[in-house]
Write a structure and sequence with these properties.
Layout (H helix, E strand, L loop, with lengths): L5 E6 L6 E5 L4 E3 L6 E3 L7 E4 L6 H12 L9 H4 L1 E29 L6 E18 L19 E2 L2 H7 L1 E2 L6 H20 L3 E28 L2 E8 L5 E7 L2 H28 L7 H25 L3 E5 L14 E5 L6 H11 L1
Parallel strand pairs: 5-10, 6-9
Antiparallel strand pairs: 1-2, 3-4, 5-8, 6-7, 6-10, 7-14, 10-11, 11-12, 12-13
Helix pairs in contact: 5-6
Length: 353
């Protein structure tokens, strides 16, 4: 591995001399006055890369499986499609790691019906959380987040990545990534508290680490009856992350006919039957009739959209499971509501950090 390139041009705050800053180094030394400085900002950001496990031939096989694995895709696409271009890209993703601690006071609904009531709760929660988001324009590739769990990240090898494929550099802001990560952590914490009413919440984040991970993806472009399409395959796990394919005309027609038939039955026949029983019930069947009409119209609308826009099939992999939602958090316990003790809160957070 070649020596990491250094950036020249930043002046030493003591003597004014130029200080070299190697990529990813957090503490630098002035070669003239020996002053040590701590690097803050994106220049001191640690960079990693996701290992590439999938080769070109495997990616091509994944494309064939994708074209033949869904009824919404033209049935002859797998045989007729002509692969025109296959290349590897490494896209950068901001990553935020940290331990998040929350102390919340609120109420939990217990019982049901006339016995329903709200009981006070005090909940303390600790989770190791991770967030990642695209650090460049990924509109062409359709991937905004990647799954980083279950893999050991490798040290950033700029020369090796450029030898294997295209490398995109980050164009976004790390500060924006930090803000997005903290917002996601806050939302996930509130969800995991499982309180129906929240009066106070105190959230702290410890051991924060920030990084930039370059993720390998295979881009496969193919031609089908004069039309161009593209599929993006995960270079680590071999799953399809994003792809477009020609639609299946017979499938679209079947969805339209069956959807319209089912929708008409619910909106007309089933609702009319429900309204005919309204006299024997003061409001239950009337509400059921209205519900059936709305449901029937909804089914008809969805089937029409499937037919109208089904000429081109688009697939986008679901967002990876948010790593903050760990099944076994470090510590969760609930107690009866007590008055907030600021010193106790500080001691608890100090122990976690």
């Amino acid at each position: 591995m070649s020596e990491l390139p250094a950036l020249h041009g930043l002046n030493c705050p003591r003597c004014g001399g130029m200080v070299p800053i190697p990529e990813g180094q957090l503490i630098v030394r002035c070669p003239y006055c020996d002053l040590r400085s701590f690097v803050r900002g994106e220049r001191g950001l640690q960079r990693f890369q996701m290992p590439q496990r999938i080769g070109r031939e495997q990616a091509t096989n994944v494309l064939k499986q994708f074209l033949g694995g869904n009824w919404a895709i033209a049935r002859d696409a797998g045989k007729t499609a002509k692969l025109e271009e296959t290349f590897l890209v490494h896209l950068p993703f901001w990553v935020v790691w940290g331990r998040v601690a929350a102390w919340a006071f609120g109420e939990k609904k217990v019982g049901s019906g006339k016995d329903a009531r709200y009981e006070p709760r005090e909940v303390r929660l600790v989770n190791e959380m991770t967030w990642n988001g695209a650090a460049c324009d990924v509109g062409e590739f359709g991937v905004t987040q990647v799954a980083l769990d279950g893999a050991v990240l490798e040290a950033y090898d700029v020369d090796g990545l450029h030898e294997r494929g295209l490398v995109f550099e980050p164009v976004g802001s790390l500060q924006q990534a930090k803000k997005a990560a903290e917002d996601q952590f806050q939302a996930e914490i509130r969800k995991r508290l499982r309180l129906d009413r929240i009066s106070q919440t105190f959230v702290r984040m410890f051991r924060r680490r920030y990084g930039l991970v370059y993720y390998p993806m295979w881009v496969l472009r193919y031609l089908y009856k004069g039309r161009h399409f593209q599929v993006v395959v995960d270079g680590f796990s071999s799953r399809v992350l994003y792809g477009k394919a020609p639609g299946n005309t017979l499938f679209r027609a079947a969805v339209l006919v069956l959807g319209m038939a089912l929708g008409a039955f619910l909106a007309v026949d089933a609702s009319a039957f429900a309204f005919s029983l309204t006299s024997s019930d003061e409001g239950g069947f009337l509400a059921l009739g209205v519900f059936l009409i709305i449901t029937g119209l909804g089914v008809m609308f969805v089937s029409y959209r499937k037919f109208r826009y089904g000429e081109e099939y688009e697939y986008r992999a679901g967002k990876p499971k948010f790593l903050g939602a760990i099944d076994n958090p470090l510590e969760i316990f609930s107690e009866g509501l007590s008055s907030l003790n600021v010193k106790e809160l500080e001691k608890w957070t100090d122990r976690l950090s």
